Amino acid sequence: MAIKKSDIKQAKLMLKISEKYTKKYTRIIRSRRQATIDKTVKEFERTGSERVIDAIKEPYLKPLIKQLYLSVAAEIGTLQLSSFGQKASIEKQSWYKKVIAYIDSEVGEKVTTISETFKDDFLRTIKFETTAAQAESLGINVIAKNINAKMTELLGWQSLRIAQTEVLSAASVAQNESVK
C-alpha cells in the first residue's frame, strides 16, 4: 500500500506541532529548574548539608505538565479530526474529555517521577563533588560552585528529555483517543 501525500502532510504537521511544544516547554522547564538549582546550591553552601535536597519543591511542575498535555492534545486531536472532516468544538468532543481524564489520573505520577529523578541526580552530584573536593581539601564555596556547574550542565538535556517525552506522550494520547 502506497503512502498518500495527505498522510505525509499530516505527519509533517504533527511533527511541527511536537517540535513547537518541545521547544516551548524545554525553555520553561530549564528556566524554572535553574532557579531551583541556584536556590538549592545557595542553601547547600550555607549549611554544607546534602539534606537540602529534601527542601526541593517544584510546585510549578504539575500545572505546567497539565498545560502541556492540554495544549498538545487540543492541537493534535483537532488536526487528527480535521483529516476526517470533523470540525466540532473541541470541548464538545468525547475524546477530549477522555484526554482530560487521562491527564487527571496520570500527571501526578509523572510529576513525582520527574521530581524524584531530579532530586536523585542532585544528591548524586552533591556526593560526588563533596568527595572530590575533600580529596583536594577544597572549601564549601568551591564545592557549591562545582555542584551548580554540574547541575546546570545536566539541565539542558534533562529539560529537553522531559519536554520531548511528555509532548510525545500527550500527542499519542490525543491521537489515539481522537480516532476511537
Shape: elongated
- Quick one: how many beta strands? 0
Major sheet, described briefly? none
Structural class: mainly alpha
Kindly state the percentage of residues in helix: over 70%
Outline the low-pLDDT stretches: none
Tally the helices: what do you get? 4
Strand portion: under 5%
Whole-number mean pLDDT: 89
Q: How many angstroms separate the termini? A: 23 Å
Global Rg: 21 Å
The helix-strand sequence is: HHHH
Please, could you describe this protein's structure?
The protein is 81% helix and 0% strand. With 180 residues, it is mostly helical. The longest helix has 43 residues, at 5-47. It is elongated, with a radius of gyration of 21 Å.
Provide the descriptors you would attach to this structure in a database record:
4 helices, 180 residues, mainly alpha, 0% strand
Give the SSE map.
Blueprint: H1 5-47, H2 61-82, H3 94-135, H4 140-178
Helix pairs in contact: 1-2, 1-4, 2-3, 2-4, 3-4
Overview in brief:
The chain has 4 helices and no strands.
